[in-house]
């Protein structure tokens, strides 16, 4: 019922590591925490002219369970980040989570990466279509 959050900066990205179940019980507190992380990052980040990254990475490697409330929290963080001008990437090797996000069509907005190195790469094929990249 309890989820832990640890946040740090890595290669121009704000990385939020979560541990515990991302479920209906954790959703209210996590919504508040991610809202604060997105707002703080929006105030601190200084994107360059060719910036395609520098957003929020949510590391779910230590999250064994995500329910629909948890997905809602992640989508809420994505919407807030988009409004602030950056994206959200997810780190997870959970086949179940990857399948769920794919089936729901959410990998276009919440790209899933197998590790922090690929998630914090400055560019990638999952860059949002409206970012002006070619």
Kindly describe this structure.
By secondary structure, the protein is an alpha/beta fold. It has a single domain, classed as Transcription Regulator spoIIAA (2-Layer Sandwich), CATH 3.30.750.24. The chain has 4 helices and 5 strands; from the N terminus they run ββαβαβαβα. It has a 5-stranded mixed beta sheet with strand order 1-2-3-4-5. α1 runs parallel beside α2. The protein is globular and about 35 Å long. The C terminus is likely disordered.
Q: Could you give the count of β-strands?
A: 5
By CATH, the topology is Transcription Regulator spoIIAA
How far apart lie the N and C ends?
44 Å
Q: What strand line-up does the widest sheet have? A: 1-2-3-4-5
Helix-strand string: EEHEHEHEH
What are the key terms here?
alpha/beta, disordered C terminus, 134 residues, 4 helices, five-stranded mixed β-sheet, Transcription Regulator spoIIAA
Summarize the structure.
The protein is built from four helices and five strands, in the order ββαβαβαβα. By secondary structure, the chain is α/β, with parallel strands linked by helices.
Topology:
Blueprint lengths: L3 E7 L2 E7 L7 H18 L11 E7 L5 H17 L3 E4 L3 H9 L8 E2 L2 H4 L15
Parallel strand pairs: 2-3, 3-4, 4-5
Antiparallel strand pairs: 1-2
Helix pairs in contact: 1-2
């Amino acid at each position: 019922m309890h989820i832990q959050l640890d946040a740090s900066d890595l290669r121009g990205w704000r990385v939020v590591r979560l541990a515990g179940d991302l479920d209906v019980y954790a959703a209210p507190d996590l919504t508040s925490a991610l809202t604060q992380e997105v707002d703080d990052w929006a105030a601190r980040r200084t994107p360059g002219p060719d910036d395609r990254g520098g957003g929020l990475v949510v590391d779910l490697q230590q999250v064994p369970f995500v329910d629909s409330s948890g997905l809602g929290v992640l989508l809420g963080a994505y919407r807030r980040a988009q409004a602030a001008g950056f994206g959200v990437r997810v780190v997870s090797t959970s086949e179940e989570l990857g399948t769920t996000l794919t089936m729901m069509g959410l990998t276009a907005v919440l790209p899933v990466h197998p590790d922090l190195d690929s998630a914090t790469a400055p560019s990638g094929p999952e860059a949002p279509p409206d970012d002006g990249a070619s």
